[in-house]
Each structure stands twice: as C-alpha cells, then as structure tokens.
Amino acid sequence: MKIKKYLLALLLGSSAFLMAGSLGAQDMPTEEMADAAEAVEETVDEAALEAAMEMALAPARAAAAAGDSTAADYIEMVEAQGSAAYAFDFFTTSMLWTVIAAALVFIMHLGFATLESGLTQQKNAVNIMFKNVFIISIGLISYAVIGFNTHYPGDFNGWISFGSFIGDLSGPGMDTFDYGGVGLAMTAYGDFIFQAMFAATAATIVSGAVAERVKLGSFMIFATLLVAIAYPVVGSWHWGGGWLGSLEGGFYDFAGSTVVHAFGGFAALACVMLLGPRAGKYIDGKIKPILGHSMPLATIGVFLLFLGWFGFNGGSVLSANPAGIGLVFTTTALAASAGALASILVSWVFLKKPDLSMALNGILAGLVGITAGADSMGPGAAMIVGAVAGVIVVFSIIFFDKIKIDDPVGAISVHGVCGIWGTLAVGIFGGKVFMTQLIGTIAVSVTAFVFSIIVFGILKVTLGIRVSPEEEAEGLDIGEHGQEAYPDFANSSR
Q: d(Cα 406, Cα 46) in Å, to the nearest integer?
C-alpha cells in the first residue's frame, strides 16, 4: 500500500515540473519544418525542385489568372514553404486527411457500441447495438436535413437559427478554396461529412447512461430531437459564429470537450434522473454492483474509441497542417495514457484493487479532457490534463453511485464532468480567459440539461420512458426486440 501511495503522489506531484516545459512547445514543429526545408535545399538539385514546384502550382496559377483570389492566397502559402513545397499539394492533402478523419470518427461509434454492450448485461446487448445503429443513422440524416445549416448559419443573431437541407454542395466554388479559403482547405462536401460524424456523438453518450431500462421508442424520439435541434443550435454558439465568440478572449473548445462531450454528459444526467436506477441496483441503502457481461468487448470498444479520437481531434485541425496534426496527435495520445495511469493508481489505492473498468474510463477521461485544448497545449500540459481527468473520473463515478445516479457505463462522469475540466484547463494551460471558459461550459451544460429535462419529461408523462419491471428482469433483448445476442452460446451452456 505504501508503494501505491508513493506512486500516486509521484504522478500527481510531477505536474509542476511538466507544466514548466509544456507551454510554448507548439513553436517547435514550425522550427523543425524550417530546418527540414533547408536540408532539402542543400541535398536536392535546385532546378528539379523549382520545376516540381511550378508543376504543383500550375492549376492554382491558372485559377489566379482567371480572377480567383483564394487561389492567389494558396500560391502565396506554397511559395512561403520554399523548396519543401514540391512535396505536397496542400489542398488535396488536406481534403484527403479530412475524409480519413471522418472515417476514424465513424469508427468511434463502433467503439461506443461495443463499450456500452460490454459494460452491461448480456440480456441487453441487442438493445445496445440497435440503439447505436439508429443513432448514427439518424445523426447523419438529421444533420443533412437541418443540422448542418443550423450549426453553421449565415448571418444570425448569435443565439438561434434553424437551417434547411444541405442542398447541392458541388456548385461553383464549393469544391475549391472559394468554399473556406486556405484556412479551411476542404470542399463543402468534405466539411459536411466530417462535421456530420460528430452529430450523433451526444446521443450515443446518453445511450450508455440510460442502458438496460429505457423504453426504445421514447429514446429514439429523444435522440432524434437532441441531434437534430439541440446539438446544432448549441454548436452554432461556438463554431457557427455565435455569442460565445463575443465573450472576452472568445470561448475556446478546439474539438468539443464541452460542445460535444459535456453537452452529451449533462443530457445523460437529466435523463438518468428522470428514469431512475436499474432494478436491484440500490437495496437497503447499499450499492449492489451489476456487472457487465464482457470486459473483453468493453476493452475493444475503448481501443476503438482511442483510435477514432485521432480523427476526432486530428481532423479538427481542418487541414493537413503538419505542425498542427503532429501536435494534436501527440497531446491526444499522452493525455489518454496519463488518464489511464492516474485512474489505475487511484482506483488501486482507494478501491483496493486494479479495476479494469476504471482504467478504461481513465483512458476516455483523458481523451475527453484534452479535446478542448489539444492544439493549444504542449506535451507536459497534456499529461497533466489527462492525469487530473483520470483522477476526477474515479471519484466522480463513486460520487454518482453514492447519490443513486445509476450510470452503467460512467458516461456522465467521463463526458460530462471531465468535459468541463478539459474546457476549463484551456484557461489554465492554453492561454485562454478562464472566466470565458467557465461561462461557456456552464451555458452549454445547463442548456443540455434543461432541454433534456423538458423533452424527456414530456415523453415520461405521455409515452413513458421505462420498460415494465417484467421486461427489465427478462432483458430488453427479448422484451423490445424478440432476439438474443448469443442464443447458441446460451443454449450450449445450459
């Protein structure tokens, strides 16, 4: 026990040392790129480099000659790269990275499905998988029908604007720099599909928290309204040019610690409070653990989420900027790893055992925590943010269990609580205004909570939100779907 306490103290006590070298680390990649460019000039024939560069610039020069001002910006940017410019076409590379990142974010939904299924009982596995299939589907469709143009409206009052169908995004300028300029080096369709993959995440977070007792039809209605209306409206406050940007220094949430994760976490809290705990979870004032049926499945889910997070955060650079992507990948990985180690040590000390579920949630806590500032912190700060998130998630899960908030997968703690921590951390380590970060997190979290209380509350008094005690005891797979997840396995084990 003394060794474990010493290791915990060492981990947390090293924060000050790591902090000292973390800030300003972002300048290093740019310097290294300059050194690389000089090395290229020294080792490669200058005439060949110039010819290759002119070949790469030929389409842009033609566009500039035709009056395309954004093409001129592109030429200026490429020429600024010097002899290293021959190595890539920035626009094409950025567009390719954007769609790869979108695919990685899509994989996250498989991660959520397997994680939630593994941490819940076998008799509810089909129900978990079904909800996740529905969520990604309704998320993409609703984002096309209303979400995209609500999320990124034109001129609006900064608070609310409901958009329309995405329409044809292949019109004049939509597949060139005219769409977003050099700073948003992607086509309109590329931008849409990347952002659409985010849309369903908030509802997926809620899915895990209400697992094993929620009525399927009511949840489907709630999830649809959450991803079609609430998420894009709140998202427009930050990413769509809304009121959060007008606060002192501007609210900063790089990839969505608050706008995506805390939003989903506090929506989940509202739903769980209205739904109540699972039958048999709290008896005579005592907490009775309801174990998940497959820790291997849960572990696979977390590693899929870890993989997908490189697209979630890395794609949010919104270009193939080498310095930006490299930094974001590094901070994302280090924060997740620090979160895992911190949660392992804390759970080992306080729960007297190395708890796998806490370790898995520690990884996710670190990922959620760094999402707000992955591009604005150095490696040291990222490890601090991740480690603190790993500590927070353990005590948060314990706290909610003690007050009888039954969250089978720890979604409220991982996404809600750690999402707030990560966004506030940008005001500590990322050079942003702390009070602005605080106001933003409160605004988004309270909005998600109130919206969910109202909508889920209406569903509770009209359609009902909870299955019958008999269905809950039998399992939602049979009661809601008439299917078993593992029928052959179950028969062979009798």
A: 66
User: Token digits for 98?
Assistant: 């954007």
Residue 294, SS3?
A: coil
Delimit the domains of the chain by residue range: 92-479
pLDDT tens, residue by residue, 433-445: 999 999 999 999 9
How many Å is the maximal CA-CA distance in the chain? 82
Q: Are 480 and 467 in contact (CB under 8 A)?
A: yes
- What's the CA gap between 376 and 146, in Å, rounded? 32
- Please write down the long-range contacts of 393-399, taking CB distance under 8 Å and 24 or more positions apart: 393/339, 393/343, 393/358, 393/361, 393/362, 393/364, 393/365, 393/417, 393/418, 394/343, 394/346, 394/347, 394/350, 394/351, 394/358, 394/361, 394/362, 395/346, 397/358, 397/361
Nearest CA to 337 among 272, 383, 379?
383
pLDDT at position 441:
97
pLDDT band at 326 (very low <50, low <70, confident <90, very high): very high
For 242, left (φ over 0), alpha (ψ -120 to 50), or beta?
beta
Please give the DSSP secondary-structure letter assigned to residue 214. Answer: B
Q: Report residue 228 as tokens.
A: 């079609």
Q: Higher model confidence: residue 491 or residue 113?
A: 113
Query: For residues 310 and 327, is the Cβ–Cβ distance under 8 A?
Result: no
Amino acid identity of residue 446, one-letter, is V
Tell me the three state secondary structure of residue 286.
strand
Helix (H) or strand (E) holding 282, with range, is strand 282-283
Structure tokens at 253: 């949430």
Name which residue leads in pLDDT, 8 or 403: 403
Q: What is the DSSP letter of 478?
A: I
Token pair listed for 212 = 């094993």
At 241, is the secondary structure helix, strand, or coil? coil
CA dihedral 307, 309, 312, 316 (to 10 degrees): -100
Superfamily of domain 92-479 in the CATH hierarchy: Ammonium transporter AmtB like domains (1.10.3430.10)
Task: Give the per-residue pLDDT at 93.
Answer: 85
